[in-house]
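FYI - complex with iron/sulfur cluster, inputs then prediction.
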Amino acid sequence: MDQLDQQCKECSARLFCNDCMCSMCGADNTIKENNTEEETVSDAPVSPPEVENKMPSVFKQAKNFARSTVRHIANGGQSVPENLKNARLEICSGCDKLSGDRCSECGCVVSIKAAWASEECPIGKWERYEQTRGKCGGCGGK
Ligand code: SF4
């Protein structure tokens, strides 16, 4: 569409009506006082730059996942309580290593990693879960 054919969506005037001062009419299209240059500010929404963390190599990811799986199986496939899983995921959600649903430090899917008791954050933000069975170390009871 030719620019001169555009119509203001706010006041229905042609370009530069200077009445409603919407972006179409001139609020963002500023003509400098000396009238020698025209400065135009884009209406395009500004979004923060997408920062994508570099993931480990596919080989390293496969190795990390295999190790995690072995640890998980050796730990009896034990999962953490739901509240601990949520607490872990809360920490991950605020971590700059999170890339989508994966941790860029190890390449693991954090929702799985956070659910497994045998797992820990590779940079020490949360620890593996040790469930105490039987006698409590503190009270000596069953
Ligand atoms: S596991 Fe650790 S390093 Fe990875 S995203 Fe979670 S908090 Fe960050």
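The pocket of iron/sulfur cluster is lined by residues 91-92, 95, 97-98, 103, 105, 110, 121-123, 125 (CB under 6 Å). The radius of gyration is 28 Å.
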